[in-house]
Amino acid sequence: MSDTPLLRVRGLTHLYGRAVACRDVGFDLWPGEVLGIVGESGAGKTTLLKCLSAQLVPTHGTVEYDTRDRGLVDIFAALSEPERRMLLRTDWGIVHQNPRDGLRMAVSAGGNVGERLMAVGARHYGNIRREVLDWFDRVELSRDRIDDRPDGFSGGMQQRVQIARNLISRPRLLFLDEPTGGLDVSVQARLLDLLRRLVAETGVAAVVVTHDLGVVRLLAHRLMVMHGGEVVEHGLTDQVLDDPQHPYSQLLVSSILQV
Questions:
Q1: pLDDT digits (tens, 9 = 90+) for 51-79
Q2: Exposed/middle/buried for 92, CB within 10 Å: 0-12, 13-18, 19+?
Q3: Is 113 in contact with 157 (CB distance < 8 Å)?
Q4: Whole-angstrom Cα distance, residue 94 to residue 101?
Q5: How far apart are CA 51 and CA 59, in angstroms?
Q6: pLDDT interval class at 259 (50, 70, 90)
Q7: Helices 109-119 and 81-89: crossing angle, nearest 10°?
Q8: Dist CA 223 CA 36 (whole Å)
Q9: How big is the CA angle at 30 (ends 27 and 32), to the nearest 5 degrees?
Q10: CB atoms within 10 A of CB 81
Q11: Largest interatomic CA distance in the chain
Q12: CA distance 16 to 38
């Protein structure tokens, strides 16, 4: 195992005026590890995810990433905006709750997936198409839909296209923002099984933001509970869910058990 974390976060704080979205968050994420972040709406988890994925510049604190060529660098101090955008197209991936936010709806499903390969230098059309077809198999999409536009797909199918689009470039870090939110329960279950299998097969590290404790139970090795912009509990997922220590964590877990 590497002795350098893939992601190192220290003192991360973001303010909207005087309102605190997240305060003094710190953790290390290791290669291949999945970290879950849970909390109610307004807890600060989405703002935290946006800061981690360079979509939002934090007010204070640092986010360091172990780049392939330069080692561990502060993504805001040491990387330019074009370099951060390149990370998002190549070594990182983001799976949005609404797949329309992560897909180009006027481009074919295959074109959406293949774009990521072109971002990392692929140019041979035949090779790109073969690899896209392989990923259609891996996310359980019919090969004969490769040339169809995603706006004709169901929400669950769009999410599968978005997952394939993000993983085809073999990123080392994946950000998942409520990846099963808004889907029917039966579709959620199949998608979660798919995500769990693909994360294990690819060895990608991931940060998963959700309000659904069932999602983190299945996907996350470690869990952070956020409340009022702060991390109130942090530990192994099963440990936190089976024996929560903080009163808010206890309330969160008991509310699920009572449903």
A1: 999 999 999 999 999 999 999 999 999 99
A2: buried
A3: no
A4: 10
A5: 10
A6: very low
A7: 130
A8: 5
A9: 135
A10: 10
A11: 56
A12: 21
Angstrom CA distances, 167 to 173, 213, 253, stand at 10, 24, 32
* Residue 108: both structure tokens together: 């074919």
Cα separation, 163 vs 155, whole angstroms: 12
Q: Rounded distance, CA 57 to CA 183, Å?
A: 30
The tokens 């220590």 sit on which residue?
A: 245
Whole-model pTM over 0.90: yes
DSSP string, 13-72: EEEETTEEEEEEEEEEE-TT-EEEEE--TTSSHHHHHHHHTTSS--SEEEEEEEETTTEE
| Residue 230 host element (H or E) | strand 230-236
CA angle 154, 159, 163 (to 5 degrees): 150
Spatial distance between the Cα atoms of 145 and 165, rounded to a whole number of angstroms: 15
Q: Is the pLDDT of residue 257 over 70?
A: no
* Number of C-beta neighbours around residue 118 at 10 A: 14
Q: How far apart are CA 135 and CA 139, in angstroms?
A: 6
* Residues with Cβ within 8 Å of residue 134, at least 6 apart in sequence: none
**1: pLDDT strictly greater than 60:** no
How far is CA 6 from each of CA 68, 106, 174, 242, rounded to the nearest angstrom?
A: 10, 35, 11, 28
d(CA 222, CA 33): 8
